[in-house]
């Protein structure tokens, strides 16, 4: 026989399911709800780790329904929304997570990423700074704040944060690659190359890392070294269109036929690549193959009607063929595109 001192488990279960939190006075019901919320949260984590974002969102939503004070569930759901590109939803969840737990570093970091993706770099910096205040050894927050500083062209601050990120996590390849970019923009090519070298040491099969080091060599007018890096990038990724374009651009200095061959491959891989068409057209102009130049430059202009350099190059070809009318029209159009 049941007595009043021993509540019926079934009754508690019904309370847990159908009554709001304020009405769940029964300790057994409260414990049941808490266990269920934890289970749903764990299931959401598992789904998220497998990339099943919709399932993860559903589980975190159910977690929040069962436990509206679950700050971490809001953060995790916000992260899923962010990965799906639903930035407004993500921002709302990050805000709620912070309201529920103002000392939780991940929510500030998430909201900072959201602001960054929306182009609000000042707010992004503020949130990354708050996250760093809470967790001073967060390499990721230093890295993300560095990117935001760079967007604002505060290069020295970006370098400082990138170096701090590397101090905390010396094996994070992205931090070295980003630091190299910062130094390149600052014009310190020697330090940029050191950072590039370190990134390649950590990840020697990453074609992008050779490509970006090649760009730094190119900017420093070290064209032979740039060609070597672009070639390595192509070896690792044979369909890397930009690597062919950049190698071709370096080869223009010494061997027009090699340059044209690189542009040929880039155009074959991506016929809509207007830069490759324009640069091949420029090579044909140098070789005085004017009609081939005009054909390439015309296609480049069709793909990008405001391509000022293509109009300028085509004007040269038209004039060489004695077509002063079209040459003058292209020169006028080029002047109108100067900003």
Structural features, described:
With 339 residues, the protein is mainly alpha-helical. Helices cover 77% and strands 0% of the residues. The chain has 19 helices and no strands. α15 runs antiparallel to α16. The radius of gyration is 29 Å and the shape is elongated. It starts with 8 loop residues before the first helix and ends with a helix. The N terminus is likely disordered.
Question: Which keywords apply here?
Answer:
single chain, 339 residues, mainly alpha, 19 helices, elongated
Write the layout of secondary structure elements.
Elements: H1 9-18, H2 27-49, H3 53-66, H4 71-83, H5 87-100, H6 105-117, H7 121-134, H8 139-151, H9 155-168, H10 173-186, H11 189-202, H12 207-219, H13 223-236, H14 241-251, H15 256-269, H16 274-286, H17 290-303, H18 308-320, H19 324-336
Helix pairs in contact: 1-2, 2-3, 3-4, 4-5, 4-6, 5-6, 6-7, 7-8, 8-9, 9-10, 10-11, 10-12, 11-12, 12-13, 13-14, 14-15, 15-16, 16-17, 16-18, 17-18, 18-19
Give the structure's gist in a few sentences.
The protein is mainly α and 339 residues long. It contains 19 helices and no strands.
The topology string of helices and strands comes to HHHHHHHHHHHHHHHHHHH
Q: Helix share of residues?
A: over 70%
> Major β-sheet, in short?
none
DSSP strand count: 0
Radius of gyration: 29 Å
Parts with pLDDT < 50 across at least 5 consecutive residues: 1-26
Strand percentage, roughly? under 5%
Q: What is the overall number of helices? A: 19
* Residue-averaged pLDDT: 90
Q: Helix/strand-derived class?
A: mainly alpha
Q: State the shape.
A: elongated
Q: Give the terminus-to-terminus CA distance.
A: 89 Å
């Amino acid at each position: 026989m049941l007595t009043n001192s021993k509540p019926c488990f079934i009754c508690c279960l019904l309370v847990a399911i159908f009554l709001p939190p304020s009405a769940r006075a029964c300790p057994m019901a409260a414990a049941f709800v808490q266990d269920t919320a934890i289970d749903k949260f764990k299931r959401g984590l598992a789904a998220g780790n497998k990339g099943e974002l919709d399932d993860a969102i559903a589980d975190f939503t159910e977690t929040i329904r069962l436990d509206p004070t679950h700050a971490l569930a809001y953060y995790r759901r916000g992260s899923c929304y962010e990965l799906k590109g639903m930035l407004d939803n993500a921002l709302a969840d990050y805000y709620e997570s912070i309201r529920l737990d103002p000392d939780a570093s991940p929510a500030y970091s998430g909201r900072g990423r959201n602001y960054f993706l929306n182009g609000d770099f000042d707010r992004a910096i503020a949130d990354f700074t708050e996250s760093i205040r809470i967790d001073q050894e967060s390499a990721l927050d230093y890295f993300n704040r560095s990117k935001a500083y760079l967007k604002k062209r505060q290069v020295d601050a970006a370098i400082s944060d990138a170096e701090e990120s590397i101090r905390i996590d010396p094996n994070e390849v992205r931090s070295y690659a980003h630091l190299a970019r910062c130094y390149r923009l600052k014009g310190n090519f020697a330090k940029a190359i050191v950072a590039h070298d370190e990134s390649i040491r950590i990840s020697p099969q990453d074609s992008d890392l050779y490509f970006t080091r090649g760009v730094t060599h190119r900017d420093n007018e070290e064209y032979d070294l740039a060609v070597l890096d672009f070639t390595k990038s192509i070896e690792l990724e044979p369909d890397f269109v930009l690597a062919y374009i950049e190698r071709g651009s370096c080869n223009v200095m010494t061997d027009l036929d090699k340059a044209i061959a690189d542009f040929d491959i880039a155009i074959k891989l991506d016929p809509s690549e207007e830069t490759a068409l324009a640069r091949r057209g420029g090579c044909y102009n140098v070789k005085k193959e004017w009609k081939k130049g005009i054909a390439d430059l015309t296609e480049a202009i069709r793909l990008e009607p405001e391509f000022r350099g293509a109009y300028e190059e085509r004007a040269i070809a038209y004039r060489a063929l004695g077509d002063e009318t079209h040459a003058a029209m292209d020169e006028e159009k080029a002047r109108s595109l100067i900003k």
